[in-house]
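The following record pairs a protein chain with its ligand, magnesium ion.
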Amino acid sequence: MKQHIVKPGSKIKLSEWDPNNTGNFKGGKEEGLVEIAKLNAKLSELQEVLYAEHKHKVLVVLQAMDTGGKDGAIRRVFSGINPQGVRIANFKAPTAEELDHDYLWRVHKMTPGKGEITVFNRSHYEDVLVVRVHNIIPLKIVEKRYNQINAFKKHLADNGTTILKFYLHIDKDEQKERLQARLDDPSKHWKFRLGDLQERKLWPEYMQAFEDVLSKTSTEHAPWTIVPANRKWYRDLVICTMLVKTLEDLKMSYPTSDEDLNGVVVE
Ligand code: ATP
Ligand code: MG
């Protein structure tokens, strides 16, 4: 999976990253789904120790173009996991109160506590993406924000948060198919907004904004993974694999009791 990680300091050109890539995985969809089921089971066990140990905090950031598959990834990756220990934070267009504060205010409040996994469905990266593409703030301020965001991530990491960041990479044709599918199926109309078509026209501007985010905010404590996401099963496989590996690396264990349980009998 290492091939999908953005090395800090590298310059990303998304046209060179194939959204259909399935890396070193030998099988196809069927084998992929079997592997995901195994990883889901592992993730469930690891999450329980994380919760019990009450020591580590895990933040998962998901960013993508519209229809990129953030919702689907959350559904598949976290299926079967105890909902008590996982929180999903959705970041929509900021409210008036949020706009009265600095852009990290609403984000910091939602970061994970001890024993918790928090998933950011969109995040403060919108404040250097949509905001930049629509010229809501000048480029000069956007440039400053990359450093602010990196400092914020370092602050979280230094204070015990493990951070995983995933950019779900689809191409423009795939988006067309997915938008069309939403249009064709009345049960998916709630997901479709006419504004999505306007956003789609800004595809090249978004790609450029994403390239800058990926190039400038992949750091040692919080690297980006570019997830090839045209194939949904591979997208989920990458996220599950990285998450399991990261949790395993935390070398967690169930806490022992601080009471003497020797010879205790339940009557
Ligand atoms: P889907 O991908 O399934 O359509 P979604 O995450 O796009 O789901 P929506 O309610 O359709 O959910 O869109 C949320 C909107 O909020 C997006 O258009 C996003 O760009 C916008 N948004 C999020 N954060 C900010 C921000 N900081 N400033 C301005 N707009 C933002
Ligand atoms: Mg949307």
